[in-house]
C-alpha cells in the first residue's frame, strides 16, 4: 500500500527514484477503493491444491480480493470431482461479458504436446484474446506462460534434454521494474517443466521485457511492454513439499527422472526440503496486485 507524505519532503525524490509507491494528501483524499475481482483459470490436475497455493498468496495483502474460478468447457478434468467443479467453478460463456481487474492462468501438464494438439487450445485462444479487452493484467504461470508467449508474441517452446526440476537462483535484470520491487539481486524459485522458451527471442522482442532469468533455468519473469501480460515460467506458488510430491509421483510411474536440483539438502531425497522462495513469492504477488492491478484498474469498468 502507498505511503502518504508531503509533496516537498526531501526524501520524496529518493523514494520516487527507488520506485517506492507514494502519494500526497490530495490524491489520498480522492481515492476510491473497492474490492479487486480476480479470475483464476485453473488448468492444474489437482485443482484443490492449486487453489490453496494461489489463495494463500493473494490473501496476504491489505487489499480485499474477490475470486472467481474458471474451468474449461471443452475438457473435463479427471482428478477433480464433478461436484467440486459444479459448486466452485464457472465457464467462459458465463463470464465473457464481465470485466476483471486481474486474472491468473495456471500451468498444465500438457507441455510436451504441440499447442494445437491440446484439447482445449481453441477455447484458451478465445480466453487469451478476451483478456486483452476485459482484464487489467493477466498473470500466466509455467505452461500458461508458454501459451501466452506463443499466442500473443509468436514465440514457441523447445523440448529440453531432461526435465527442468529444482530450485534455481535467478538474477533481477531490471531493478526499476515495480513487479520486482523489494527483490534481492539474487533470489530462488522452483521450476518443473520439460520445455523452455528461447531467451534470445524474448530479449529481442520489442513488445517484451525480460525482468529476471536464471543461468540454469533460463528466462523466468517476462512482461509485456504495457504490463498487461505477465509470464512466469516457474512456480513461485509451490509449497515446500510440491516438488518432492512430483518427484515421488514420477518415480512411481517409472519415469527416468532425476532428483530435483538444489532442493533437498545435499540432493538427498530422504531429507526434508527447505523452502528458499516463500518470501519472494509473497512479494511478487503483492507487487502484481498492487502495481499492475490495483493501481491500474478503473474504479468503474465502462
Overview in brief:
The chain is of the alpha/beta class and 302 residues long.
Strand order of the largest sheet: 5-4-3-6-7-12-11-10-8-9
| Count of distinct structural domains | 2
CATH superfamily of the largest domain: Class I glutamine amidotransferase (GATase) domain
Q: Give the strand tally.
A: 12
Helix-residue proportion: 25-40%
Q: What Rg, in angstroms, do the CA atoms define?
A: 20 Å
Strand fraction equals: 15-25%
Structural class of the helices, strands and pairings? alpha/beta
* CATH domain class of the largest domain: Alpha Beta
Quick one: biggest sheet? 10 strands, mixed
In terms of per-residue confidence, which ranges show pLDDT below 50 for 5 or more consecutive residues? none
Number of helices: 10
What is the CATH T-level topology of the largest domain? Rossmann fold
Can you tell me the CATH architecture of the largest domain? 3-Layer(aba) Sandwich
Distance between the amino and carboxyl termini: 25 Å
What would the principal axes of the Cα set say about the shape? globular
Order of helices and strands: EHEHEHEHEHEHEHEEHEEEHH
Main location: cytoplasm
Protein name: Homoserine O-acetyltransferase
Binding site for substrate: 163, 192, 249
Catalytic activity: L-homoserine + acetyl-CoA = O-acetyl-L-homoserine + CoA
Amino acid at each position: 500500500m502507498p505511503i502518504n507524505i508531503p509533496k516537498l519532503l526531501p526524501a520524496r525524490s529518493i523514494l520516487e527514484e527507488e520506485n517506492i509507491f507514494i502519494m500526497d494528501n490530495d490524491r489520498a483524499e480522492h481515492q476510491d477503493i473497492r474490492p479487486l475481482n480476480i479470475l483464476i483459470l485453473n488448468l492444474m490436475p489437482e485443482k484443490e491444491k492449486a487453489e490453496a497455493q494461489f489463495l494463500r498468496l493473494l490473501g496476504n495483502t491489505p487489499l480485499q480480493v474477490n475470486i472467481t474460478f474458471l474451468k474449461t468447457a471443452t475438457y473435463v478434468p479427471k482428478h477433480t470431482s464433478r461436484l467440486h467443479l459444479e459448486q466452485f467453478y464457472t465457464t467462459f460463456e458465463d463470464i465473457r461479458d464481465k470485466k476483471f481487474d486481474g486474472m491468473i492462468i495456471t500451468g498444465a501438464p500438457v507441455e510436451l504436446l504441440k499447442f494445437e494438439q491440446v484439447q482445449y487450445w481453441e477455447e484458451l485462444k478465445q480466453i487469451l484474446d478476451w483478456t486483452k479487452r476485459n482484464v487489467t493484467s493477466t498473470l500466466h504461470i509455467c505452461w500458461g506462460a508458454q501459451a501466452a508467449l506463443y499466442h500473443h508474441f509468436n514465440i514457441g517452446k523447445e523440448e529440453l534434454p531432461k526435465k527442468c526440476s529444482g530450485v534455481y537462483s535467478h538474477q533481477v535484470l531490471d531493478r526499476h521494474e515495480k513487479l520486482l520491487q523489494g527483490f534481492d539481486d539474487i533470489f530462488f524459485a522452483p521450476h518443473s517443466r520439460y520445455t523452455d522458451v528461447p531467451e534470445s527471442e524474448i530479449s529481442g522482442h520489442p513488445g517484451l521485457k525480460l525482468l529476471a532469468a536464471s543461468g540454469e533455468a533460463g528466462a523466468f519473469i517476462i512482461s509485456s511492454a504495457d504490463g498487461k501480460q505477465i509470464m512466469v515460467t516457474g512456480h513461485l506458488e509451490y509449497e515446500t513439499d510440491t516438488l518432492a510430491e512430483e518427484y515421488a509421483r514420477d518415480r512411481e510411474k517409472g519415469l527416468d527422472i532425476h532428483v530435483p536440483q538444489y532442493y533437498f539438502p545435499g540432493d538427498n531425497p530422504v531429507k526434508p526440503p527447505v523452502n528458499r522462495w516463500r518470501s519472494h513469492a509473497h512479494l511478487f504477488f503483492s507487487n502484481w496486485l498492487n502495481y499492475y492491478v490495483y493501481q491500474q484498474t478503473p474504479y468503474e469498468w465502462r
